[in-house]
Amino acid sequence: TGAISSLQRQMEIQESELRRIRSEKELLQKQLRKREVQLQTVSDKFCSLTEEQRQEEITVMMEEENHNLQQVVAEQKSQLAEQNKLISELQETISQLRAEVVTTRLHLLKEKQAQKEIQRQAEALEHKELQTRVELECIRSKFERYRNKIIQATFSAEGSREPLAELTDDDVLEAMQKIINERTELQKKVKKCSK
């Protein structure tokens, strides 16, 4: 936004300079018209003289006026050429500044869209994490119930003693293995007796 504001300020300055130069150009054109009016006034003034005087005076005046006008015209042409060149440069600068403003706005728009996409992905990940936590808690709960059932089944068997301390998973496995071994041994004895 700062870059766009800076570019817009530069563009406003360039456009103001362009208006000033155009104003000066109009002023020069007005001065030229004023000279033409003065020349017409002098011409009218000498109309009242005799033909010979008039011719002489007009010739001298015309030569001087022509010389002066040629200088003024040359100066004004030079100034107008410089101003036209400056106007072209200013218009080119304004076009560049406008292009930069458009480019900067597009860049900001892309960044905003990228930021929205990142935000969307972050929200999706948060949602996925929450789901995973819920599923993990459900699995833990099931595992705990299953473990308690195993402990209950293991230590409720005939001849088993109640555990004195909190059991580890290894303790539970060991107790279960002992029960399995005893049952296997019992089955073997039953098979022998039946023979």
From TrEMBL:
Residues 4-38, 66-131 form a coiled coil. It comes from Phainopepla nitens (Phainopepla). It comes from the Eukaryota. The keyword Iron-sulfur does not apply. Keywords: Coiled coil. The gene is Ccdc27. PANTHER family: COILED-COIL DOMAIN-CONTAINING PROTEIN 27 (PTHR18853:SF9), FORKHEAD-ASSOCIATED DOMAIN-CONTAINING PROTEIN 1-RELATED (PTHR18853). This is CCD27 protein.
